[in-house]
Amino acid sequence: MTDMTAKTAPEIKAVPETMTAAFDDFMEAFEAFKETNDRRLGEIEEKLTADVVTREKMDRINRAMDEQKKVLDQLALKKARPPLGRSGAGGVEAAEHKAAFENYIRRGDEAGLREIEAKAMSVGTGADGGYLVPPETDTEIGRRLSVVSPIRALATVRQVSGSVLKKPFSTAGMACGWVAETATRPQTNTAQLAELSFPTMELYAMPAATQALLDDAAVDIEAWISSEVDTVFAEQEGAAFVSGEDTNKPKGFLSYTAVADSDWSWGNLGYIATGAAGAFAASGASDVLVDTIYALKAGHRQNANFVMNRKTQASVRKLKDAEGRYLWQPPASAGEAATLLGFPVVEAEDMPDIAANALSIAFGDFRAGYLVVDRTGVRVLRDPYSAKPYVLFYTTKRVGGGVQNFEAIKLVKFAVS
Predict the structure, then answer these.
(1) pLDDT digits (tens, 9 = 90+) for 92-110
(2) CA–CA separation, 262 and 289 (whole Å)
(3) pLDDT tens digits, residue range 247-296?
């Protein structure tokens, strides 16, 4: 019995070399998933419980789908990464900066960078020292982050030169009214403004290299720095944009006060409860998703995405509508997102798992709702002394974030109310 089940269940195959092959494997797994879930639901209806073998097979297929989706994401990331070397980009000044920066990284020679700063009549060193990386490297790190960190890719990103971005927001527009042709015009109420403040926090990484590696002319130093820091920066950013508590971190959208949507007010995020603690409701499980969609105003709804982690998505995959159709649908083609009730699903592993009172699903127009603030420039300080024989590269980036429109994001709370 177990052998027959193993033959029909999809297995995690060798990593495909193309997105098309990975997408075909994913779709094959989804077809097996639908067949097994239908069998599970039939057993529950007939015997009030699903067979153990069916449940185990269901879990195995879910894991296989998650692994195959990771492969798709990795191939999409690889495809999205542009080469660092862009001949002619920035002209002579950019080439001069790149050469001087490489001399600094490889040999600690600061003369070239100091000369460039003098020519530009600017200072690139901060209180703790360090030099700005060339524009090519700075841009590359930013692009990789936009793919790896899902919230950054969804949100509005602003570049600032100072440490804080202050943004006025109109919480109530100007009043107006109808009047007769000759009637008096009473003064109307003025717009109500709220000032939102987004401070930038310091994010750092400290990759190390041997002097032998730096002396090797075949090593692309800019690519090495980018590959070392982009993943760790993205992981830290992704977690902060979701649940950062505004203490030396950007403020995540789950850190704001969440209230029942019927009691929503500016400064809070509204949630819709599933009706059951740590689970979807036993009857009409998908109703909470529909209610969440229509809790958003139409202007935000048309640009909205669902955000959840893989475990939550595994539970959502099992939901059907009244006609027996699956609410979760796989991507239409390689490189696209899966959809839930017609809206894209974005996987963010920093979202909480389904548990009692957990806010495990977010739905909203994150471009309007969440703001990421980047302070211009990634800075590198070379330290050949602290960890001999290694050379440390103290790499810093200042980034902030927070909710800028509290109407544009809604949450699903796995609670009775």
Answers:
(1) 667 777 777 777 777 777 7
(2) 16
(3) 889 999 999 999 999 999 999 999 999 999 999 998 999 999 999 999 99
Residues contacting 401, CB < 8 A, separation 6+: 155, 198, 240, 241, 244, 250, 251, 252, 370, 371, 372, 373
Contact 250, 275 (CB under 8 A): no
Domain boundary among 37, 63, 80: 80
Is residue 27 situated within a structural domain? yes
Report the half-sphere exposure of 73 (CA within 13 A, side-chain side): 18
Q: Are 335 and 73 in contact (CB under 8 A)?
A: no
Distance of CA 250 to the CA centre of its chain: 13
- State whether 388 and 252 are in the same domain: yes
pTM above 0.70, yes or no: yes
Last residue of a domain, one of 59, 80, 101: 80
- Which residues are paired to 409 by β-bridges? 364
Q: Does residue 127 lie within any of the structural domains?
A: no
Dihedral sign, CA of 411, 412, 413, 417?
positive
Burial of 111 (0-12, 13-18, 19+ CB in 10 A): exposed
Residues 60 and 146 placed together within one structural domain of the fold:
no
Mean pLDDT of 351-372: 97
- Residue 52 host element (H or E): helix 52-80
User: Amino acid identity, residue 279?
Assistant: A
Instruction: For residue 301, tell me if it sits in a domain.
Output: yes
Do 272 and 403 reside in the same domain of the chain?
Answer: yes
Q: Collapsing DSSP states into helix, strand and coil, what is residue 267?
A: coil
Q: Which residue has the tokens 């590269």?
A: 393
Has residue 237 been placed in a domain? yes
Name the CA dihedral angle for 287, 290, 291, 297, rounded to a multiple of 10 degrees: 180
* Amino acid symbol at 343: F
Residue-number span of the structural domain to which 58 is assigned: 2-80
Q: Which residue has the higher pLDDT, 244 or 322?
A: 244
| Same domain assignment for residues 17 and 149 | no
Number of structural domains the chain divides into? 2
d(CA 338, CA 177): 45
